[in-house]
Amino acid sequence: MQRKFFTVLLLLVLGGTLACATTSVSEPVTPAPTAVDVAAVTETAPTPVALPTETPPPTPSCTFALAYVADVTVPDDTAFSPGASFVKTWRIRNSGTCDWEPGALFVYVSGDPLGGPASVPLPPAVAGTNVDVSVDFVAPSSPGTYRSNWQAQSPDGAPFAGQAYVQIIVPEPTPLATDTPLPAPTATETSAPADWPVLRRGNVGANVYALQYLLKAEGATITADGNFGPGTEATVKTFQQARGLAVDGIVGPQTWLELIENHTLRTGDSGDAVQAAQYLLVHVYDFTIKIDGVFGPGTRDAVQTFQTAHDLSSDGIVGQETWKVLIVGP
Questions:
Q1: Which of the pair, 197 or 150, is modelled with greater confidence?
Q2: Which end of the chain is less congested by CB atoms within 10 angstroms, N or C?
Q3: Which ranges of the chain would DSSP assign to H, the alpha helix?
Q4: Complete DSSP assignment for 286-323
Q5: Do 215 and 235 touch, CB atoms closer than 8 A?
Q6: Alpha-carbon torsion 169, 89, 84, 114, what sign?
């Protein structure tokens, strides 16, 4: 009986234990993290992108520039008669760093062309040196103030920095008063041969240039501009007084003879008298020589050719007879 009791009790205990086991809630199982081999993972660096670089413009090796230095002829506001021909000569400096080589031009760029060419050759010049450049012009027919602007350009057409200009005046015509006659030539001037030109105030042209250069050769301080104005008249009177001539300011044969008396020109000579002869050879007789005041081989050859053409002794020396034919004109 007692054995049955213990057997029943054991069965009850076992049954309760099993019941508790079946009603308990099992907790979720968290999977263990997988170990990562850090050494096996390599970070790939981004590939740099090449940015375009800006190429600077090429730096020019030198520069072209022109600077005005002086008016050799025709200062500003020189007066010319309508239709008068004149030559403007500038002294200019190569103010850039490039040398001026053959093929460069001095060109008209604006203002009034004054009957001049579109361009003339620009003399070669080393940087920092001066040269003279000349242009032939014709005064307009109407009164007024006229200006012509000029600029240099390289052989490939590139303009230089800087300009030069010529400015002239064509005055209003001034009628002569009826009670003020023109001064008559004096007996001393009219007694000489009549084929010398007679110049007086108001005349312009090549012979006036020659006169002014010859006066400069005698020590006068005037500008050779081709215009017989008050300054030239006063200088002529001073010269005439110094030479014992009639002081009337009119350049007739006797004054011409006195002007050329001390200026027989030959190879090796230089100065204003040489410029007078060169100016006449170039602008009256169309010779192509430089007007530089130096009597070199080119001037000598031109004189000999001129003398042969005019039945003079072809010795290349500018004496009284050659001067006379040069001044009288063709």
A1: 150
A2: N
A3: 2-23, 187-190, 206-217, 230-242, 253-260, 272-283, 297-309, 320-328
A4: ------SSB--HHHHHHHHHHHHHTT---SS-B-HHHH
A5: yes
A6: negative
Q: For Cα atoms 136, 299, 220, give the angle at the middle one, nearest 5 degrees.
A: 70
**What pLDDT is recorded for position 173?**
76
Spatial strand order of the sheet with 130-138 comes to 66-71, 85-94, 130-138
CA dist., res. 319 & res. 261, Å (int):
9
Is the pLDDT assigned to residue 139 strictly greater than 90?
Answer: yes
Q: Is residue 46 part of a domain?
A: no
Residues 202, 309, single domain; the answer is yes
* Residue 139 contacts residue 150 (beta carbons within 8 Å): no
Q: Which tokens in the block code for residue 2?
A: 């007692």
Q: What is the CATH number of the domain that holds 85?
A: 2.60.40.10
Full residue range of the structural domain in which residue 78 is found: 66-170
Q: Name every residue whose Cβ is closer than 8 Å to that of residue 298 and which is 6 or more positions away in sequence.
A: 289, 290
Same domain, 213 and 298: yes
Mean of all residue pLDDT scores within the chain: 83
Do both 76 and 138 map to the same domain? yes
Asked if the structure places residue 282 within a domain, the reply is: yes
pLDDT of 228 > 70? The answer is: yes
Q: If you compute the radius of gyration of the chain from its CA atoms, what whole number of angstroms results?
A: 50
Q: For residue 223, give Cα distances in angstroms to 4, 59, 212, 220, 229.
A: 164, 44, 7, 9, 11
- Using a 10 angstrom Cβ sphere, with 0-12 exposed, 13-18 middle and 19 or more buried, the burial of residue 135 is buried
Q: CATH code at 264?
A: 1.10.101.10
Residues 260 and 305 reside in one and the same domain: yes
Nearest in space to 275 (alpha carbons), one of 257, 255, 290: 290
- Is the pLDDT assigned to residue 254 strictly greater than 60? yes
pLDDT tens-place string over residues 284-309: 999 999 999 999 999 999 999 999 99
